[in-house]
Amino acid sequence: MKSDAPEASLAAEPGAYLFEPRHHEFRQLVRSFVDREVNPHADAWEAAGHVPRDLFHKAGELGLFKHGVPEAEGGTGIDCRMAIVMSEEISRGHTRGVGMALGAHNEIAKPHLVRFGTPLQKSKYLADMIAGRKVGALGVTEPKAGTNVAGIKTTAVRDGDGWLLSGEKMYITNGVDADLFFIAAKTDPARGRQGISMLLVERDTPGFSRTELTGKLGRLASDTGYLKFDNCRLPASALIGAVNQGFYQIMQCFEHERIVIAAGCVGLAEVSLDETVAYVKQRGYGDGHLADMQVTKQRLAKSYMELEAARQLVYGTAWRVVRGIPSLKEVAMAKAFAAEAACRIIDDCLQLHGGAGYLSAYPIQRAYRDIRLDRIGGGTTEVMYDIIAKQKGI
Ligand SMILES: Cc1cc2nc3c(=O)[nH]c(=O)nc-3n(C[C@H](O)[C@H](O)[C@H](O)COP(=O)(O)OP(=O)(O)OC[C@H]3O[C@@H](n4cnc5c(N)ncnc54)[C@H](O)[C@@H]3O)c2cc1C
Question: Which atom of ligand 1 is nearest to the CA of 380?
């Protein structure tokens, strides 16, 4: 017998085995936040190239930065499911730049403090990050070292009881507006990846400058910066985690970042498909509509199938991660598959819009520009394939 009870409909959802009632409640919270606080301003923020600081405050007040933090430290616990829900929902909004700005703060920078910060560092910064009063950024990539993290040239040299930081960082999300920068630097250059440490740099540190990078393809509402450190004097307390363990700390945090990116791909591909179905149902063709053509139906059916495969890979991987099962290979698979699938799906969606899809009047144009980053950021698809091959002993 068919039941309209909410429990019955939730039990039929694709993530029924993964999510609990609190995740469904969180999904509704994020969805209403996006509808109320993001969508009405999406075009203005895309034009400005920045997300206003006020949005971080509002997100913080709602508790959207509490997940990923133990309850004893003011959070709602370490659990990637909240992050997955948030990434999916924000990606369904009218600008992915917002998801990028909030995500860089909450899912990419903050975990370095939560996982590796000392009690003193946490007492100084964590409450402000959770409240959105201080915005974070992660700086690993450099002009001459992206994929090859071990090849970074930024150095932190001992200076009395502190450090002298020199070097450059490239393509850093929130790089212009952030307050707290988690920076990877060589503390023992001769040791390659075993000579990297993480340092926390405050915005107003003398010798630290930021330049906005313009001309991005997509994610226009998020700011992307070039950072320069010119003999910045940092206190000993700037070290995050252990000396020369930075590479391994970065790799640990990548697991979370990648599954969050994969979930965002699912969210954006799904909303793009739903919008495309609405479009082809009203777009006249002969006596009927585009949706009546078998080629349209087949194209959309194939895309929904790929979307479901991506979603199940993300959820199945999250299920493992929540249980603490080592999932390096699975996370790489989820990230690569979801990013590649979403790019294919959204390309097909634009094709089904015809010329209309090429213009900014339809959201598919922005989605097409925005999704392209997911094959590059957080580790390129090729790097994900490398990880999978290595884990398979190839
Ligand atoms: C909008 C935006 C926001 C970003 N935000 C941040 C941020 O907040 N913080 C941060 O640290 N970084 C950030 N990045 C950087 C991003 O993570 C890098 O661009 C990415 O890791 C790739 O590095 P790269 O650009 O140096 O490309 P490269 O490493 O030069 O790679 C170029 C090509 O070579 C391929 N390649 C490289 N090495 C291998 C290999 N071993 N095997 C096979 N193929 C290989 C790559 O897959 C790619 O196709 C951002 C980038 C962009 C565009």
Answer: 47
CA–CA separation, 260 vs 391, rounded Å?
21
Check: CB of residue 137 under 8 Å from CB of residue 105: yes
pLDDT band at 120 (very low <50, low <70, confident <90, very high): very high
Q: Which two tokens stand for residue 365?
A: 């144009």
Torsion region of 363: left, alpha or beta (phi above 0 gives left; psi -120 to 50 gives alpha): alpha
Contacts of 251 (CB under 8 A, 6+ apart): none
Question: Do both 202 and 161 map to the same domain?
Answer: yes
Q: Is residue 199 in some structural domain?
A: yes
CB of 219 sitting under 6 A from ligand 1: yes
Which residues are tagged catalytic? 257
Query: Is residue 147 within 6 Å of ligand 1 at its C-beta?
Result: yes
391 C-alpha vs ligand 1 centroid, how far in Å?
Answer: 21
Residue whose CA is at the smallest distance from ligand 1 atom 16: 377
- Would you say residue 3 lies in a domain? no
Instruction: Give the tokens for residue 136.
Output: 């974070």
Q: How much is the mean pLDDT over the chain?
A: 96
**CB 386 near ligand 1, within 6 Å:** yes
CA angle (189 as vertex; 187, 194 as ends), nearest 5: 75
- 130 and 142, same domain (yes or no): no
Q: Which domain holds residue 102?
A: 17-135
Q: pTM for the complete prediction? A: 0.96
Q: Per residue in 201-240, pLDDT tens?
A: 999 999 999 999 999 999 999 999 999 999 999 999 999 9
Q: Is the pLDDT of residue 13 over 90?
A: no
- Evaluate: CB of 172 within 6 angstroms of ligand 1: yes
Residue 216 Cα: closest atom of ligand 1: 1
Residue 5 — very low, low, confident or very high, per pLDDT cuts 50/70/90? low
Q: 376 CB less than 6 Å from ligand 1?
A: yes
Give the position, in ligand 1's atom list, of the atom nearest the Cα of 184.
Answer: 11
